[in-house]
Amino acid sequence: MATRDPDRKRRQLMEAALAEFAEFGVAGARVDRLAGRAGISPGLVYSFAAGKEGLFEAVYGAIAEQTVDAVPIDADDLPEYAGRLHDAGQQHPQVMRFLTWYALESTERPASDAVARSMRDKITAIEAAQRRGSVRRDRPAAEILALVLTLANMWQHHTEDVNSLVPPAQQRATITDAVRRLVAPDRPADH
């Protein structure tokens, strides 16, 4: 006799949804195909989420939460933080494809509470590092965060013509060096 395991079914659904949305985006995704990937009935998809759009948002929220947990910010070492974000993107290209679709298809949606809270927490951490003198103070913390996040993921969102400009083995070092230069506090000149 089979036992019910809703947590396992939910994990299967989230994994299948990530794969489906990474490949087709929300507009091109099909619930029947997604259910087939998860090994569940299409009707069961609706018991876990409010349709494709609800599931799309749920996958995004799960990715955001996992990234915060897996790659916590170290505002006193933003170059290495950017390097670890780059590494995570390299290890999970399907997540990066999903995030590209999310950016394309979510222009009208406000940030979720969890994502907004995560961004505020990162900005607060950078502001504290600025007060400690480990991050430059002449740029707002939010601007620094935006630049760090963009640099960390820069090779995930380009075509091969741009990606081939820097050999893959050198890309992480290029990112960490750029972030180091971006955030380095100005040192007073020796007199």
Integer-rounded radius of gyration = 20 Å
The chain-level structural class is mainly alpha
Count of helical segments? Answer: 10
User: What can be said about the biggest beta sheet?
Assistant: none
Helicity level, as a percent range? over 70%
Question: Topology as H/E string?
Answer: HHHHHHHHHH
Low-confidence stretches: none
Share in β-strands: under 5%
Mean pLDDT: 86
End-to-end Cα distance, whole Å, is: 82 Å
Shape: elongated
* Strand element count: 0
What does this 3D model show about the protein?
It is built from 10 helices and no strands. It has 191 residues and is mainly α. The chain starts with 5 loop residues before the first helix and ends in an 8-residue tail after the last helix. The mean pLDDT is 86.
Short account of what is shown:
With 191 residues, the protein is mainly α.
Any descriptors?
single chain, 191 residues, 72% helix, elongated
Topology:
Elements: H1 6-28, H2 31-38, H3 42-48, H4 51-70, H5 78-91, H6 93-105, H7 113-132, H8 141-152, H9 160-163, H10 168-183
